[in-house]
Amino acid sequence: MSRTSCYQKGGDVYHGGQPRRKNSKNADAYRDLPETFTIKEVMAVLDLEDCAARQQCNRWAKHGFVERIKQGRYKKIMKEIMV
After folding, report:
1. Which has the closest alpha carbon to 53: 29, 36, 34?
2. Could you tell me the domains of the chain?
3. Which residues is 74 bridged to in the sheet?
4. Ramachandran region, residue 70 (left: φ > 0; alpha: ψ -120 to 50; beta: rest)
5. Phi (first) and psi of residue 80, to 5 degrees
6. Tens digits of residue pLDDT in 10-66
7. Strand partners, 52
8. Is the distance from CB of 78 to CB of 65 less than 8 angstroms?
């Protein structure tokens, strides 16, 4: 195996000896959202359709990054998510 190719070690993916940042697009989008945000804002920031934006918000809520304050509106619990 070449050192410059991607390889997996213990569940982490590496490229050129460096860990790959997983979901960095989502982390960047999360950082750009206001303290309270709507599904429509997630759609705009991540360029997603309605269903995919709702799924992303549900994932963030499941991981404890946000809390749902009412239908279609969320509040950040963590200032930033590390990936």
Report:
1. 29
2. 22-76 (1.10.10.10)
3. 37, 68
4. beta
5. -145, 145
6. 544 444 555 555 568 889 999 999 999 999 999 999 999 999 999 999 999 999 999
7. none
8. yes
Q: Which residues contact 11 (CB under 8 A, 6 or more apart)?
A: none
The single residue listed with the structure tokens 């195996």 is 1
DSSP code of residue 47: T
**What is the residue whose two structure tokens read 């804002």?**
41
Q: Which of 6, 29, 46 is nearest to 83 (CA)?
A: 29
pTM: 0.70
Nearest to 27 by CA among 41, 40, 9, 45: 45
Both tokens assigned to 72: 């279609």
Q: Report the pLDDT value the prediction gives residue 50, as an integer from 0 to 100.
A: 96
> And the tokens for 21?
């940042």
Q: Are strands 18-19 and 66-70 parallel, antiparallel or unpaired?
A: unpaired
